[in-house]
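HUMAN: Mind sharing a backbone?

ASSISTANT:
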Amino acid sequence: MLFNVSHGGSNEWWSLERFVYERRWPMRVVTWNLWWRFGPWEARQKAILAELRDLRPDVVGLQEVWADGGENQAEWLAAELGMHWAWAPSPPRSAGAGGSATTRSTSGTPC
C-alpha cells in the first residue's frame, strides 16, 4: 500500500513501512464487512458512518461494498469522512458487491 504524503510543499508516495516509521505515531486501521444491501441497509449505512466517524481511522478496508447505477457506497463514505477511496468489483456473480479501501489524507497532524 502506498500513501500520498504532503510535506514541505511537495507530495511524495511513501510505503506503509516508511509512513509508520517517519510519522512515528500509531495508525488506526479498520476492516469491516458491510453486508452489501441486505436487511435495513439505509439505516445501517448511517450507523456505519457514525461509527467510522467515532473511530477516526487512518485506513479502512471494506468488504461487500455496493455499487449500483452510478452510486458507490465506498465513494459516499469516503466523501463523508474526508478520505480518499478506491474500489474494485467482485466477480460478476456478486451482483455489484466489491471491496474497497479508503485512506485519510496524511497531511497535518495525526488523527
Summary: Confidence is low (pLDDT under 50) at residues 105-111. Helices lie at 16-23, 41-55, 73-81. The two ends are 19 Å apart (CA to CA).
